[in-house]
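Thread title: Can someone regenerate the structure for this chain?

I was given the following input by a collaborator and told the matching structure tokens would be attached. They weren't. Posting the sequence so someone can regenerate them.
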Amino acid sequence: MFGINDRDIRRLERTLGEMSARAIPYATRNTLNQAAFAVRAEYQKNIRDDLVSRNKFTERSVRVERAQGTNITTQKSTVGSIADYMDEQEFGDTKTANGAFGVPLATSYSAGQTGQRTRLPRKPNKMQNINLRGRGGRSRSRKQQNFLAVRMAAQSGSKYVFLDLDRGAGIFKVVGGKRRPKVRMIHDLSRRSVVIPANPLLRRSTDTVAPRVQDLYRESLEFQINRMSR
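Best answer:
Regenerated them for you:
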């Protein structure tokens, strides 16, 4: 015969229940954070595959805020880019020109390509790196102003010029010799507004990871159970 101290049994049951209650919030927090970093990796992959970029800044701009604490109702992890222009990519936007001419759109020539542009403009051809000479001769006709601008640019060795042509205004690069200079458009200014279509790379990344969350939670629960049983 042996006796059982009921008070000790109750204490042990209470302790086991408290341990279990504490373990579950750690499992949910770990699941949220694992899912967030999986979304981040998928998002960065989509950026590499879908976007035209010269460096790693956009890819590195994707950050994770980890879930904190043990209150399941307030735990959350977030994934997003600190680059403002990624909002335009995700949700789309419309850019409207404020001046007399349209929104600058880089041409394929600015990137050293023919046909559809798939790369960013070369560094010298970026808008922020272009210095234009004054056109002058406002009393002249538009055709005369264009002719004079190209000739002056060719003679001075300047590479870039603004031209207002029948087919649309733009910024052109002067190529060829001084005697017979030619121009190639590098930024088209003919459109007053430009619609940037939505390219929801983050949502696509989240949708890819979502089916895996259940497995991540199961693994986190198993980890906590094994940890408690040691």
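The two ends are 31 Å apart (CA to CA).
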